[in-house]
Amino acid sequence: MIILISGPNNSGKSAFAEELITGVKVQKKYDGNLIYIATMICRNEENEGRIIKHKLRRKDMGFRDIEEPFDLDNVHTDPGDRVLLEDLSNLLSNRIFDKGGSRQEVLEQLCRLEGRCDRLFIVTISGLDSEKYHGETASYINDLNYLNNTLSSMAQVHIEMKDHSPRCLKGSLNHVY
């Protein structure tokens, strides 16, 4: 099962996803394995600050953290695990710009990962407009928008965050559990 959490930067999507996967948002504690796949590569001080902020926020949430910026097939999961991918935009960027990969490779990895776990929570940036850019940046944004649309159609639940407020675009929070 895929649960997609999308929204612009700083919309609260990561914190919401962390609370949703652990059961805090619906007051249903999950006692199984929680896996957090971190995809950001620390390339500058801003990245370092975001990474530290995210680690501190989830410190006592019970996640097994896995840093895997390129290949989700390297992540071991069990069928009952709940997995949080943080985030799709970084994974896609890393695959395209560092490994010469494609959106199709990322989609296939996500499908295989979904098949290896109970619930796959995917955090992604949405609302980017490729018309404002050109070249490889525009191409990347088009690829991200394609993946977001494809995953939205595959997901049982799609939540869009805006100003730290969730809005269900598909399904409901009750469908998460």
UniProtKB/TrEMBL annotation:
User: Which EC number(s) does the record attach to this protein?
Assistant: 2.7.1.156, 2.7.7.62
Q: Name one GO molecular function term.
A: GTP binding
Q: Which GO terms are recorded in the biological process aspect for this UniProt protein? A: cobalamin biosynthetic process
Q: Which domain of life is it from?
A: Bacteria
Q: Which Gene3D superfamilies match?
A: P-loop containing nucleotide triphosphate hydrolases
Q: Hey, which pathway is this one from? A: Cofactor biosynthesis; adenosylcobalamin biosynthesis; adenosylcobalamin from cob(II)yrinate a,c-diamide: step 5/7; Cofactor biosynthesis; adenosylcobalamin biosynthesis; adenosylcobalamin from cob(II)yrinate a,c-diamide: step 6/7
- Keywords, in A-Z order: ATP-binding, Cobalamin biosynthesis, GTP-binding, Kinase, Nucleotide-binding, Transferase
Q: Which Pfam families match?
A: CobU (PF02283)
Q: Which residues form a coiled coil?
A: none
InterPro entries from the UniProt entry = CobU/CobP, P-loop_NTPase
Root EC class: transferase
Write down the chemical reaction(s) this protein catalyses: adenosylcob(III)inamide + ATP = adenosylcob(III)inamide phosphate + ADP + H(+); adenosylcob(III)inamide + GTP = adenosylcob(III)inamide phosphate + GDP + H(+); adenosylcob(III)inamide phosphate + GTP + H(+) = adenosylcob(III)inamide-GDP + diphosphate
Reported function: Catalyzes ATP-dependent phosphorylation of adenosylcobinamide and addition of GMP to adenosylcobinamide phosphate.
Spell out the family assignment given in the record's similarity comment: Belongs to the CobU/CobP family.
Q: What is this protein called?
A: Adenosylcobinamide kinase
Source species of the chain? Baileyella intestinalis
